[in-house]
């Protein structure tokens, strides 16, 4: 399974460096005003021609670079695009090298006119690398770019980075880089080879306020596409995405708005790791708001097997990978700052029809590898020479802004079942402990003790016993305990809290868990 996402994991690991590139540019001849419609036309025309892999044969000094060598290439900030302008943004460009061997064309769009941004080695500090950049092709190109914006201070901070295949990542105020997004996924965690489309060309619209617009041209053996990103940073960074896709071939599994993250271990999986840190993860759960209005929380896991979970739906209202635990004492890692990693919520801006939110969790023993992927798979056939459009909004936040009136799951624990009296623990049972917080209920303690709040627990196969729901003062919430005795190899568990005094209405989101033998 690791081979299927090897490229994904390597790209995610390499995101952690501070690369360096910059720009020079020369104007094209006068053209008509350029817009996203022009990128759509280019994508459609590209899909009608055979795919050409634009991977380049880099000079050995670049091609053989290790991660630490590549990360030693540093940009010269004073050469950033728009550096000498009174604008909210600056743009810097990543150098080709190591894993990043697909050159990307980058342009500026100024008042509707396209200006090429050309490679110039003079704009780089190559650090301790023993290379002679004078020998590089003057048309070498870039690997990607990043945008700087005064997100946290009056100085420019890194806001968003596009580097490798169709990967990009962003953050909101006070956050640090964590999970990544992709433009498109194809055949993730399937028996057939996974395909990684690339953004091969970008157009950066010169901003005139705090919102910036980016166009991108996507390409792969199976599909071409045009993307528009409208980025508005702040306490919650919003990115509105429009994708227009033109398949070259029929595609068995097309993945819309794919998210990739890392979950090494948490409260429910720490037994596998001998590490002083209580938890290590960029995200700790998948959140889904389905078309029926159910809010579902699936804690992430890192088991010895690939886990592939599907949440079948019609016109989903949203999904995302969340980092809910914000207590730095739960990570004990002031360098990694896992407590500051973003959550990313995907909100469809139109009806997506029938399909499924799918979660793929791969086994991992290394926190530098992204081993979690979530995405939307439409049921409709994806056929060659047709057009497909998707619009959605990305919320880079601490917590998804959906249905706050429902109590949410804060932590999940599990271990051997039984009541523990006289050493009575049973290996054929599992005990689950779930913390619920943020109740919109007065006198929560009294309501629980009076039995008005109760746990609705269901499962596909097995026996539930020893159910106990208690008020927990330390979290000002409720903690549910129960034992589960399975009788199948894979079983889905489902829990929500209800209010007996108000027609058994749901008062919590749904805890969803997949048990494996």
Describe the structure.
The chain has 517 residues and is mainly β. The chain has 5 helices and 34 strands. It has helices at 6-14, 36-47, 60-63, 67-70, 444-449; strands at 24-27, 74-75, 90-94, 105-110, 113-118, 124-125, 144-149, 157-163, 167-170, 180-182, 184-186, 198-205, 212-219, 223-232, 237-247, 254-261, 263-265, 280-281, 285-289, 295-299, 307-314, 318-322, 343-348, 354-361, 372-378, 388-397, 408-417, 426-437, 453-459, 463-472, 477-485, 490-499, 505-506, 510-516. The strands form 5 sheets. The chain has a 16-stranded mixed β-sheet that branches. Strands 3, 7, 8, 9, 10, 11, 16, 21, 24 and 25 form a 10-stranded antiparallel β-sheet that branches. Strands 27-28-31-30 form a 4-stranded antiparallel β-sheet. A hairpin with a 2-residue loop joins strand 4 (105-110) and strand 5. The longest helix is centred in the first third of the chain and has 12 residues, at 36-47. It is globular, with a radius of gyration of 24 Å. The two termini are 19 Å apart.
Task: Annotate the secondary structure layout.
Elements: H1 6-14, E1 24-27, H2 36-47, H3 60-63, H4 67-70, E2 74-75, E3 90-94, E4 105-110, E5 113-118, E6 124-125, E7 144-149, E8 157-163, E9 167-170, E10 180-182, E11 184-186, E12 198-205, E13 212-219, E14 223-232, E15 237-247, E16 254-261, E17 263-265, E18 280-281, E19 285-289, E20 295-299, E21 307-314, E22 318-322, E23 343-348, E24 354-361, E25 372-378, E26 388-397, E27 408-417, E28 426-437, H5 444-449, E29 453-459, E30 463-472, E31 477-485, E32 490-499, E33 505-506, E34 510-516
